[in-house]
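name: query_chain
kind: protein
chains: 1
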Amino acid sequence: MNEWIKDYEDVLEMLDSFFREPAPFWDRFYKDREKKIPFFVKEPDENLVGYFDNGLFAKGKVLELGCGPGRNALYFSHQGCQVDAVDLSGESLEWANERADEAGADIHFIKQNIFHLSIEEGTYDIVYDSGCFHHIAPHRRNSYIHLVEKALKPGGYFALTCFKEGGELGGATLTDWDVYRQGSLKGGLGYTEDKLRTLFHPFHEVEIREMNECKESGAFGVRGLLTAVFRKW
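structure:
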């Protein structure tokens, strides 16, 4: 590997290398499908279901970032959306493809680091992220926001679900500087409503709230997560 820093992208790649190797870690994570992981269920996020039920979302072209085993991608497809779903784990995408085949859903799954995606500007009506953003290190946040801005059509929606700071499922309370002092995201960074509002200020805020707990089947909802939806100006 050439360790010569020529430009800003090389700096980002260097900082990426200080954290756990993404693909092998997530392949191991998804290998055992019987683990008691809350989001291994098939149900879509309760907030996502709500966006369609209240008419905020309609069928269109969707990009899902960090799709995992595909539960939300399947829901988008069932709503008549054309779905591109991205994840860097081959194990998770194998599982997602099996679910899609079983459901007869036509979803374009892409094995790729989201920061290496090649997309045309203004392609998508909706960008959705359930559990990817809180695994993004601080030095990549601007790259992430730029990716979302580029992907969305004017008036398109961006929605995410992430760890609440100090929440039941995780949500490290580290400062950004501490992330680099310790060389770890501690399982995922936690956010507050104000932090999300500040970070995604280039977009119009539609709603930020805590995820509703769902004990009945039909939708996934647990304590300790925040949900947010924004619109591109």
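note: The chain has one domain: 14-231.
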